[in-house]
Write a structure and sequence with these properties.
Blueprint (H helix, E strand, L loop, with lengths): L18 E4 L6 E6 L11 E6 L7 E5 L15 E8 L6 E9 L6 E10 L5 E7 L7 E4 L10 H4 L16 E4 L1 E7 L3 E12 L12 H10 L3 E4 L24 E4 L2 E4 L3 H11 L2 E6 L8 H12 L5 H8 L10 E4 L8 H14 L7 E4 L7 H8 L7 E7 L4 H11 L4 E7 L6 H17 L4 E6 L4 E2 L13 E4 L2 E4 L1 H12 L3 E3 L1 E4 L4 E2 L2 E2 L1 E7 L5 E8 L5 E7 L9 E8 L18 E6 L4 E3 L3 E8 L7
Helix pairs in contact: 4-5, 4-6, 6-7, 9-10
Length: about 600
């Protein structure tokens, strides 16, 4: 955590900062926010601790994580990290770092380590701690504990923003906290702390929870865009995230959401390790992000030791390139520097042997103006120039077709699909929107991102932001109904489309047929996946028919189905699999019985047929 705000949790419900911690009643001291430039570390404030007596207990700062709700530790498992600190004393200070259980009275120390802080400049103090027992998390009534932030319920964020569902949002209180402080009288200033599980709880050697990476794989995610309105902040300019020192990164605040120490290079590392496509969004529309600065980004990520910025990457400890292909130059704005930036980036890419390798996303649905289009087209990059489409469900395919009339050589990408929902209603929208993309067959439409991959239970602002297709808490991670749609499609995916029709339903929804079908066939045409969506609130008996180019082999097919009669149903922490896929067997020689509000995927071998 980054102590950039007050440490009083009752005045800091969005969860940034620390609380003063005293291990015994005979301890005295003071804490002060150091906000002036001489006191800052990496442009952010620090907190000065002064222990004024020699009482037996420690006086320090406790970090309880998001919303001060507490941390969950596992007994006997290693936790590691570091603290950035300094002291104004002329003598070396002994800093105590502890994992504690605050659910007991007094607080119980689960693990402790003393580290030596020499006088002088900021110092990185590494530690490793193994708790002697577990800490647990319990659900609490909203507002019952003023020290725990739970913004969905106490309206700290946006009282007027509607939520699509409250059942998946809960307030929790966990026992664990991390403490940094002093046992002897003295002074220490703390600027930054970092705590993570050991290798047992992380994905590879990255600072990523294994459970989060596993969920991305379970959903079949093939690309992740880290971007949005926060990327329009100058704090998200990529050069501010260059880890020449691996101690402390910028903090980016958007509304009540804070990103600390997690930036574009962490995203690229995660995606590279997962084998999926990173889509980088960075501050770019204004200075200091000039054309040569963005060319430096190409060189920093892919350059060798012989290049200025490649050497900076290697000297910073990242020998391998940061591998990416897609970059968005700004977010939901007209970037007047776009053409100049693309020109400079391509020139630098050509020097690295990577000409026409990258895809450059323009951050506005309407694309560039006529003058900039003429200049951009002269670069002869074709669909490596992309217009990023941000819309709700069912809009991107139509916007793509409209844009291609004006920008016939450009590519399109739908990098935000904002539905403001995580319920069964969104599940059906997600399935319908994916089918519309598959059916469209537009080669210049490079991808679609369903917003958002993850949502924190209890901590969204409402409105369009309450749209995570998976949720997480300190002690669990689970899929919402629309997340299961992606997992089903990923498990059944075949690369070639074949036509199919559904008859017998007779109903139309506002976005098209209420019952739709789509067929995908393998390259060798030996297998197919049949997608069937029923958006109606009633069971439907339907008949499938296929083009002469592809016909079913056996009539009995197997697959998975997901359905719910309640459009507002969501997966709660207490019942995280309430709406989830179940296995089905169907006889396609008979009318299909499609449950109300359901999505079905059947896998089938075909019989001999002409090539598609």
């Amino acid at each position: 955590g980054d102590p950039t705000a007050t440490w009083d949790p009752t005045r800091n419900p969005d969860g940034v900062g620390w609380v003063v911690a005293m291990e015994s009643s005979d301890v005295a001291g003071a804490a002060k926010l150091m906000n002036g430039p001489p006191d800052q570390f990496n442009t952010h404030p620090s907190i000065s601790l002064q222990k004024t007596d020699s009482g037996s207990g420690a006086f320090g700062l406790a970090n309880r994580g998001l919303g001060h709700e507490g941390l969950m530790f596992q007994s006997g498992k290693l936790y590691e990290g570091y603290v950035i600190a300094r002291t104004s004393s002329s003598a070396t200070m002994t800093v105590t770092l502890e994992l504690q259980d605050r659910s007991t009275d007094p607080v119980k120390v689960l693990a402790s380590q003393d580290v030596q802080l020499p006088p002088g400049n900021w110092t990185k103090l590494a530690f490793s701690l193994t708790p002697s027992q577990d800490t647990s998390c319990v659900g609490i009534e909203p507002g019952s504990d003023p020290t725990v932030g739970c913004p969905i319920y106490n309206n700290t964020y946006s009282p007027t923003a509607g939520m699509s569902d409250l059942t998946a949002h809960i307030c929790v209180k966990c026992g664990g906290q991390f403490m940094a402080g002093l046992r002897a009288a003295g002074q220490v200033e703390i600027a930054f702390s970092f705590l993570q599980p050991g290798a047992w709880g992380r994905f590879g050697n990255l600072s990523v929870l294994a459970s989060g990476a596993a969920l991305l794989r379970d959903m079949g995610i093939t690309a992740v865009r880290q971007g949005g309105s926060f990327a329009a902040s100058a704090d998200y300019f990529w050069k501010k995230w260059v880890p020449l020192l691996d101690e402390g990164m910028p903090s980016v605040r958007w509304g009540h959401d804070v990103e600390t120490g997690w930036g574009p290079f962490h995203l690229i590392d995660l995606c590279n390790a997962l084998g999926i496509e990173p889509i980088v969004t960075t501050f770019a529309a204004n200075q200091p992000a000039g054309p040569e600065d963005m060319a430096d980004f190409v060189e920093y990520c892919y350059g060798t030791e012989e290049t200025e910025w490649g050497k900076k990457r290697i000297d910073g400890g990242h020998v391998e390139p940061y591998k990416w292909r897609f970059i968005e130059l700004g977010n939901e704005q007209y970037n007047a520097q776009y053409v100049d930036q693309v020109t400079a980036m391509e020139e630098r890419a050509a020097k690295l042997g990577l000409a026409k390798f990258f895809y450059y996303m323009f951050p506005s649905n309407a694309g560039v103006n006529a003058t900039d289009q003429e200049r951009a087209d002269a670069l002869s990059l074709g669909d490596h120039l992309l217009i990023d489409i941000h819309d709700g469900p069912f809009g991107a395919v139509g916007i793509t077709r409209s844009n291609l009339k004006k920008f016939p050589t450009w590519g399109m990408i739908n990098a935000e699909t904002n539905c403001g929902d995580h319920t069964v209603h969104r599940m059906l929208e997600e399935a319908a929107d994916l089918i519309s993309f598959f059916d469209a067959g537009i080669s210049q439409l490079h991808g679609r991102a369903g917003s958002f991959c993850f949502e924190r239970s209890g901590y969204q602002e409402g409105g369009l932001n309450d749209q995570g297709i998976s949720f997480f808490l300190p002690n669990m991670t689970w899929l919402q109904p629309p997340g299961h749609i992606h997992a089903m499609v990923a498990n059944a995916w075949q690369p070639n489309a074949a036509s199919a029709q559904v008859t017998g339903c007779g109903a139309w929804c506002s976005v098209g047929p209420c019952v739709t079908a789509h067929v995908q066939v393998s390259d060798d045409q030996a297998n197919a996946s049949l997608y069937i969506l029923n958006m109606t609130p009633t069971e439907v008996n339907a008949t499938l028919s296929f083009s002469e180019q592809w016909q079913l082999g056996p009539s009995e097919l197997y697959g998975f189905q997901i359905a719910s009669p309640n459009l507002q149903e969501a997966n709660t922490p207490g019942n995280p699999m309430a709406v989830s896929p179940y296995q089905v067997t169907v006889d396609v020689s008979q009318p299909l019985q499609l449950p109300a509000q359901s999505f079905t995927i059947l896998t089938a071998p075909g019989k001999e047929r002409a090539p598609i």
